[in-house]
Amino acid sequence: MALVDRYGNVVERYEYDAYGNCHVLEPNFADDPDGQSDYENPYFFQGKRLDLLDDGGLELMSWPYRDYSPYLGRWLQAEKLGMIPNDAGVKRLLVAFGVFVKANGRGQPV
Prior knowledge:
It is a single chain. By secondary structure, the protein is mainly beta. It has one helix spanning 90-96, and strands spanning 2-4, 10-16, 22-25, 50-53, 58-62, 67-69, 74-75. A 4-stranded antiparallel beta sheet has the order 4-5-6-7, with no helix packed on it. It has a 3-stranded antiparallel beta sheet with strand order 1-2-3, with no helix packed on it. It is elongated. The mean pLDDT is 76.
């Protein structure tokens, strides 16, 4: 991901690890010397705002219904439908939204 000026020139680049932690890079892909955005860009992973709280000691990204901590690599609130990671809950999700798969030909949920 990159931040560009009004002329389309890349002024800063961003790289993310598997947990959403941001690594700031120079326009030429070299590591940024201080690892901080030189442009105070608050928008990061998936276009979400990274809020720096407690003098930068606490980083949170806000989604509509819950907050994510890149430091912890996890959500801070439970998922609203009650699904947990690695849950084979696709069926539960479909049932929760009233979608039924006609696997047995009678329209009963599988």
